[in-house]
């Protein structure tokens, strides 16, 4: 279904057959990606997987070896950053420390020769949007990290970019502010209906923010899909292990069986298919994390609070796998 | 003695040996020098005779002016070249830039005397360059030696690496994302220089300039080996006066030199203490 809408909706950004390799061999290969208008797409993967490389090729900070990048249907891969209809928010040290917040925001507009009055009006409106009214005269060091990133987002949005690029913008912030900023970004994005490409290594962040997630591994795309799709049908063993928690057990003929902890069901059937011994019980609020020993393998199970009440360490329990995935030796999904 | 009083006194006790040495080798000679500078050689007693000598004697005035001129030209050239070099080293990733980055400090590791003599064998009127030119039928007389130009050339050799090092530190404090963000909003190279790089590093230009000024105003080796007989830089003048038993005058010249250094030290302190609006928290 997702593929269907992809074809129908208005494609804002298209990357086709793009390759960029650094002299040390790192980089990305054969990247194909369509981002639709008004969509938040997240590039997700561990450090070194090439997600930032893709973002920086879109922004124009690095060139491509081959392939095309189209924004609004126009090829941009040969343009420098200042000529591209993109705006980028960096991980940190985004703002120019010697300029006031107002000057930081006005800099790009002045270059574009926007009249003074209009600059002031647009900055006013933008500060309102990011909830930072009244900070115009402050300097970046007088703001908290979260506030600085709000200003950085405002500065990028003032350029009215076709595509907003965010390179791990919240990873330097502490967990609570990070969650808050995610919601803020989502709110701003929905208010402006802007197209966003977001890079993160935090799968929770990707799940929370994205319309679609691009899971990357070692310079190639492993899977593209909505958060639920990626979680419910990981197409490769890598995606299965990277997104959410997963138990892996050896299957027949070199295959591997993968089961989500919430799909490991404990019951007391008389003739169990599988049985295990409870080794740890960790109540985590609305569910309980149970550590199980099955032969020489360890499994985790998430058990609803009410069902966990009767469990004791060293109890023998029967297991059923409510849902499981089987991956072949190459890591591909078999069933 | 209770612990609290002990804690208060202990730091001073630990500073005592250093203070004592300072007092003996620095503070006492300074005062002794100042006293000597007011000891009149001709009229006897205390007075301004030694200072008036420098202010009235046209040759001595020329020497002071000559020194200041050489030092100011050195400061402007060394800091200017070093600033451009440090920008190049920071923002270029080319092979050339990487090699310069590795090599530029090398002159600092060559003893001054060796470097000066090495330079003399190359640029003197019968030096390496002259001999090479003669192979091609020319006869270059560079005229750099026993002249201000030679001293300035040598000063650049010593001071460009030093100033580059100081300003390179300031350049590396500029984050890539600050430059990239400026490009992203549409700024070209010149605008990035004027609006981002210069405001973030101008203070280090002044700091490097004061350091270069102070170390060159009192320089001796280079002007002694490369300078002419007249005019001479203040370091050489002082050496000659002292050699001729004019202790009062050489002491007075020391004080004058100290005052000139102090002026640039004041600038250093002012620039260093001055916080721009954006650095106040």
Topology:
The complex is a heterodimer of chains A (335) and B (281).
Chain A: H1 2-8, E1 11-21, E2 27-36, E3 40-44, H2 51-59, E4 66-71, E5 74-75, E6 86-89, H3 101-111, H4 116-129, H5 145-158, E7 163-167, H6 175-192, E8 195-200, H7 203-209, E9 212-217, E10 220-225, H8 227-232, H9 237-242, E11 247-250, E12 256-259, E13 264-267, E14 274-283, E15 287-294, E16 297-304, H10 305-308, E17 316-321, E18 325-327
Parallel strand pairs in A: 3-8, 3-9, 6-7, 7-8
Antiparallel strand pairs in A: 1-2, 1-4, 4-5, 9-10, 11-12, 12-18, 13-17, 14-15, 14-17, 15-16
Chain B: H1 3-37, H2 49-56, H3 58-91, H4 95-103, H5 112-123, H6 128-135, H7 148-172, H8 176-184, H9 189-217, H10 221-226, H11 234-243, H12 247-273
Helix pairs in contact in B: 1-12, 2-12, 3-7, 3-9, 7-9, 8-9, 9-12, 11-12
Throw out a few tags for this protein.
heterodimer; A: 335 residues; alpha+beta; Rossmann fold; OB fold (Dihydrolipoamide Acetyltransferase, E2P); 2 domains; six-stranded mixed β-sheet; five-stranded antiparallel β-sheet; 18 strands; globular; disordered N terminus; B: 281 residues; mainly alpha; MetI-like fold; 12 helices; 75% helix
Walkthrough of the structure:
The complex is a heterodimer of chains A (335) and B (281). By secondary structure, chain A is of the alpha+beta class. Chain A has 2 domains: 2-238, Rossmann fold, CATH 3.40.50; 246-327, OB fold (Dihydrolipoamide Acetyltransferase, E2P) (Beta Barrel). Helix content of chain A is 29%, strand content 32%. Chain A is built from 10 helices and 18 strands. Chain A has a 6-stranded mixed sheet, with helices on both faces. The longest helix of chain A is centred in the middle third of the chain and has 18 residues, at 175-192. With 281 residues, chain B is an all-alpha fold. Chain B has one domain (59-279): MetI-like (MetI-like fold, Orthogonal Bundle), CATH 1.10.3720. In chain B, helix 1 crosses helix 12, helix 3 (58-91) packs parallel to helix 7 (148-172) and helix 7 packs across helix 9 (189-217). Chain B is globular. Chain B starts with a helix and ends in an 8-residue tail after the last helix. The mean pLDDT of chain B is 91. At the A-B interface, strand 6, helix 3 and helix 5 of A face helix 8 and helix 9 of B.
């Amino acid at each position: 279904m997702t593929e269907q809408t992809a074809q129908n909706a208005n494609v804002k950004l298209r990357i086709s057959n793009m390759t960029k390799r650094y002299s040390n061999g790192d980089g990305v290969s054969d990247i194909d990606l369509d981002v639709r208008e008004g969509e938040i797409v997240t590039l997700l993967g561990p450090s070194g997987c090439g997600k930032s490389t893709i973002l920086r090729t879109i922004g124009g900070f690095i060139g491509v070896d081959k392939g095309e990048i189209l924004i609004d249907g126009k090829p941009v891969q040969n343009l420098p950053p200042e000529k591209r209809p993109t705006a980028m928010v960096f991980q940190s040290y985004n703002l120019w420390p010697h300029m006031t917040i107002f000057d930081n925001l006005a800099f790009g507009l002045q270059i574009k020769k926007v009249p003074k009055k209009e600059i002031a009006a647009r900055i006013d409106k933008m500060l309102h949007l990011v909830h930072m009214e009244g900070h115009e005269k402050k300097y970046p060091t007088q703001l908290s990290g979260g506030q600085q990133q709000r200003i950085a987002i405002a500065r990028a949005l003032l350029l009215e970019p076709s595509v907003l690029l965010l390179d791990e913008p919240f990873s330097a912030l502490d967990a609570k502010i990070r969650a808050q900023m995610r919601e803020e970004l989502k709110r701003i994005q929905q208010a402006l209906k802007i197209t966003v490409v977001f890079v993160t290594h935090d799968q929770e962040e990707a799940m929370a923010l994205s319309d679609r997630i691009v899971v990357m591994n070692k310079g190639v795309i492993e899977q593209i899909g909505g958060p639920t799709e990626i979680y419910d049908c990981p197409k490769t063993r890598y995606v299965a292990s990277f997104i959410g928690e997963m138990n892996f057990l050896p299957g027949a003929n070199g295959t591997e069986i993968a089961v989500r902890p919430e799909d490991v069901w404990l019951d007391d059937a008389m003739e169990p298919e599988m049985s295990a011994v409870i080794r740890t019980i960790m109540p985590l609020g609305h569910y309980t994390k149970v550590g199980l020993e099955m032969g020489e393998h360890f499994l985790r199970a998430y058990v609803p609070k009410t069902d966990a009440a009767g469990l004791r360490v060293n109890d023998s329990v029967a297991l059923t796998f409510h849902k499981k995935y089987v991956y072949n030796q190459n890591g591909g999904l078999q069933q | 003695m209770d612990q609290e009083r002990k804690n208060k006194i202990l730091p001073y006790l630990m500073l005592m040996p250093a203070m004592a040495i300072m007092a003996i080798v620095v503070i006492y000679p300074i005062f002794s020098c100042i006293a000597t500078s007011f000891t009149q050689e001709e009229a006897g007693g205390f007075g301004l005779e030694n200072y008036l000598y420098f202010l009235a004697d046209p040759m001595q005035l020329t020497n002071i002016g000559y020194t200041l001129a050489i030092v100011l030209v050195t400061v402007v050239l060394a800091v200017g070249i070093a600033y451009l070099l440090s920008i190049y080293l920071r923002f270029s990733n080319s092979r050339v830039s990487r090699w310069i980055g590795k090599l530029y400090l090398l002159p600092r590791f060559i003893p001054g005397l060796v470097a000066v003599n090495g330079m003399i064998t190359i640029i003197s009127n019968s030096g390496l360059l002259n001999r090479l030119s003669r192979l091609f039928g020319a006869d270059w007389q560079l005229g750099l030696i026993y002249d201000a130009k030679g001293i300035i050339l040598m000063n650049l050799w010593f001071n460009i690496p030093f100033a580059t090092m100081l300003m390179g530190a300031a350049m590396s404090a500029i984050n890539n994302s600050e430059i990239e963000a400026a490009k992203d909003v549409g700024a070209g190279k010149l605008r990035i220089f004027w609006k981002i790089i210069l405001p973030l590093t101008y203070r280090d230009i002044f700091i490097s300039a004061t350091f270069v000024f102070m170390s060159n105003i009192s320089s001796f080796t280079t002007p002694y080996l490369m300078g002419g007989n007249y005019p001479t830089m203040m370091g050489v003048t002082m050496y000659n006066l002292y050699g001729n038993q004019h202790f009062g005058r050489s002491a007075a010249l020391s004080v004058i030199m100290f005052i000139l250094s102090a002026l640039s030290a004041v600038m250093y302190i002012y620039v260093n203490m001055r916080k721009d609006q954006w650095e106040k928290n």
